[in-house]
Protein: allantoinase
Organism: Capitella teleta
Amino acid sequence: MSQLFKGQRVIRGYDVIDPSGFDEVVDAGEELLMPGVIDCHVHVNDPGRDSWEGFSTATKAAAAGGISTIVDMPLNSIPSTTSRDAFNVKLDAAKGQLHVDVGFWGGVVPGNEAELPGMIEMGICGFKCFMIHSGVDEFQWTNEADIRAALRVLKGTDSVLMFHAELDVPGLQTEPKGDRVEYKTFLDSRPDVMEVEAIDLVCRLCQEYQVPCHIVHLATADALPLIRKCKQQGAPLTVETTHHYLTLAAEDVPNGATQYKCCPPIRSQQNQDDLWGGVLSGDIDMVVSDHSPCTTDLKTQGSGDFIAAWGGISSVQFGLSLLWTNLKSRGMNIHDLHRLLTTNTAKLPGLSKLKGSIEAGKHADFVIWAPESTFKITEDIIQHKNKLTPYMNRTLNGVISRTVVRGKTVYHNGKFNETPQGKATFRKN
Ligand SMILES: [Zn+2]
């Protein structure tokens, strides 16, 4: 037995710290204790589109999923987080609503580069831009000149620029042709080459400016050779993919099932297998939810029109269990899970000094869960505001029993701490 702490005592063969001085002592029994999951790609949409999601419901869903920190995307809220003023509006909207800690991404849009240093000063986690229409008119997409202007400002700041990497390729026919209820009609309108061309440009800019660049939600495995080469040449590039690209396949999407629509699209089973290869090799650094819900009407559930439907998949609550269920059959283990969901997702938004591992001096953010237990996703357990999800009725491995944020239990066996314990959290390099 080690003698790490004065007053240490032993219960059933485990080393236990003297409980006096602690608010709460938890015996996790046979369950697994890990640092809380950090999901650094969540669209909370609050304020402005809080009928789609909101800080309270999104963070409750996160807590129920073993997540102790989410990082909120700058778009779909109104205003978008593209200025210091808008960042303050968002921080106000979040106040008193948070069941887990929340960091914030800012946006790079044409002409806002003068706002970036002030937002960094305020503790923004980094920035995101779109290389194609974002889906909402108030968050404008950036061309190469806009991106270069932002990279010049970000150089030397330790901040990161993230890219929605799809480009309209000149001469490429992407007008949807065919039955709009068929998934293939949508898939054919967003071919792999749109991602590959965009990622090629990101890689070149990342190498030229040596500013940390990050590709969000990589969907095509065709870009993996470019990514590998860019990293091998020493460019500060990181890449994420999502639970849906690693779980779902185009061949299995039913007609009219618009809950499967997102951009870039879920591609073939072969592509999914190849993405897993990228996760295994380390070319893909992390896995996130890209939780992006909306109201049912915008998902055109009546008509099943894939082209008109909003693109976004809801899943923040189920990320840990989804990855765990799939990862074992792909030759990975619990250490990979920790790296993909926590270590690397803490690093990207600059939260590693306080989060992402269990160490003295860091926040006491934990998840306690039962890896071998199973559960079924049903509407009554879903905590996010709009319940539509492609994972309905799936049975997953990995039941979350407790989530702890800075030493406070926020979720325990289906029940929440009704006093929101989460805080806004800021980049610390
Ligand atoms: Zn997103």
